[in-house]
Design goal:
Blueprint: E1 3-8, H1 12-27, E2 31-32, E3 41-46, H2 51-70, E4 75-80, H3 87-93, E5 99-100, E6 125-129, E7 131-132, H4 143-147, E8 151-152, H5 155-167, E9 172-176, H6 193-201, E10 208-212, H7 221-229, E11 236-238, H8 246-251, H9 258-271, E12 276-283, H10 290-303, E13 307-312, H11 320-324, H12 331-354, E14 360-369, E15 372-376, E16 382-385, E17 395-403, E18 408-412
Parallel strand pairs: 1-2, 1-3, 3-4, 4-5, 6-9, 9-10, 11-12, 12-13, 16-18
Antiparallel strand pairs: 7-8, 14-15, 14-17, 15-16, 17-18
Helix pairs in contact: 5-6, 6-7, 10-12
This protein binds iron/sulfur cluster.
Residues 134, 136-138, 141, 143-144, 178-179, 215 line the site of iron/sulfur cluster.
């Protein structure tokens, strides 16, 4: 049996894409190889969001050169964000790579023989991509240049995919897009994310529905109302703020002010009680002063997010920020700012999670790690517990007995699953 190996780096969209490729190859009679060295087909699924990610991909590409020399029969392919419209340049630089295909495309050597298929035995949770690309051009971001303009998939196509995944055992779906709030603007009739959520929510057998990532300038009252109303849509919203200073937000070309962001959060919290909020923050953006950085700290301490993904700014070649702005916050200063927000957030998460101590929460079981079962609450809290027998895909009541900033631990409590876990 021929063997395949997929190396993936980057966001959930890449992971979802790799999962689809895996099932496609398995449908064609391939089996997973234990390592790249044993594979007949090797696919690199690349990310270029950060320079460090792109460098890792480039290193991998070079490392495959000797393999192709010793085993010319091996098929090598590159997909993901490194593949742009100029594949000619990639072919010149990496002549040992046989195929280049963009994210979401069918691998060229399969075009006549197979469509990308869904996993045959999916895990209880699955990602479904609803749009590719982005129209926003935030100053620091390379995504619109590499993934191109936003292209939405039709509502019917997405709903059909969800229905099939649920038929195969999936209980929770996360809809993915770079900016889910502008979903549908390029489709006939301009359906909105709220409409899509309504359709997917109606899929029988689906237990939970999530979506990533929102853009504060585009999140509509209609969407907030839909999240509050639809029973399967989880009380969890990812809303990247990036900075707590209007001047920095303007330099980042984000399209909103700190006050507008705060008002949006208030509206969300009024409409969706117990909602969990996550955000993204960049520290050390060009010319960010100490006072502007304090604005970010104030915002984080005031809003108290459930999760914060943080990064120190590093210029990304090809972006407006790299072209036009001097990377003038020193590395030690960036590290110190990162450390400040990390420590603050750890404390906030410890407080938020501690409120769940002694309470029973509804957990959708995903799998087992180091002898313990794990799953997530509707608010995306990671919960570990012990139990005999198999239970992936089950919704269980877990009474929380210990908490940390990062996860919760508890034991199974019999009875109806408690959905009121919005601590
Ligand atoms: S919204 Fe901004 S940060 Fe997000 S993918 Fe688009 S350009 Fe990049």
């Amino acid at each position: 049996m021929p063997k395949y190996h997929i190396w993936t780096i980057g966001c959930q969209m890449n992971k979802a894409e790799s999962a689809r490729l895996e099932s496609c190859f398995e449908g064609l009679g391939y089996e997973a190889a234990a390592s790249a060295a044993e594979a007949d087909l090797i696919v690199l699924n690349s990310c270029v969001v950060r320079q460090s990610a792109e460098s890792r991909v480039v290193n991998k590409l070079h490392a495959l050169r000797p393999l192709k020399k010793t085993r010319p029969g091996v098929t090598l392919a590159l997909t993901g964000c490194l593949v742009n419209s100029d594949t000619g340049r990639l072919q010149k630089t990496y002549p040992h790579i046989d195929h280049f295909f963009k994210p979401g495309e069918v691998p060229p050597w399969l075009e006549k023989t197979a469509e990308l298929s869904l996993p045959r035995h999916p895990s209880p949770t699955a990602y479904v991509t609803i749009s590719q690309g982005c129209d926003n051009f935030c100053a620091y971001c390379i995504v619109p240049y590499r993934r191109g303009r936003e292209r939405s998939r039709p509502v019917a196509e997405i709903t059909c995919e969800v229905r099939e995944l649920v038929r195969r055992g999936v209980k929770e779906i996360t809809l993915l897009g770079q900016n889910v709030d502008s979903y549908g603007r390029d489709l006939p009739g301009k359906p909105e994310l709220a409409d899509l959520l309504g359709e997917v929510n109606a899929v029988e057998g689906l237990a939970r529905l999530r979506f990533l990532t929102n853009h504060p300038k585009d999140m509509s009252p209609r969407l907030i109302e839909a999240i509050a109303r639809l029973d399967k849509v989880c009380e969890q919203i990812s809303l990247p703020v990036q900075a707590g200073s209007d001047a920095v937000l303007a330099a980042m070309k984000r399209g909103y002010t700190v006050e507008q962001y705060r008002r949006l959060v208030e509206r969300i919290r009024e409409s969706i009680p117990g909602v969990a909020l996550s955000t993204d923050v960049i520290v050390g953006f060009p010319s960010e002063t100490e006072a502007q950085f304090r604005g970010t700290v104030d915002l984080l301490s005031g809003i108290k997010f459930d999760t914060v993904h943080m990064a120190a700014y590093s210029p990304r070649e090809g972006t407006a920020a790299a072209r036009e702005l001097e990377d003038n916050v020193s590395l030690p200063e960036k590290k110190a700012r990162l450390d400040t927000v990390e420590r603050l957030q750890e404390q906030i998460q410890a407080e938020i999670n501690a409120r769940l101590l002694g309470r029973a929460v509804g957990v959708l079981v995903e799998g087992k790690k180091r002898g313990k079962w794990y799953g997530r609450t509707r608010t995306d809290k990671l919960v570990f517990f012990r139990r005999d027998g198999d239970c992936p895909g089950e919704l269980m009541n877990i009474k929380i007995e210990a908490t940390s900033p990062w996860s919760l631990r508890g034991s199974v409590e019999p009875g109806n699953v408690n959905q009121e876990d919005k601590g």
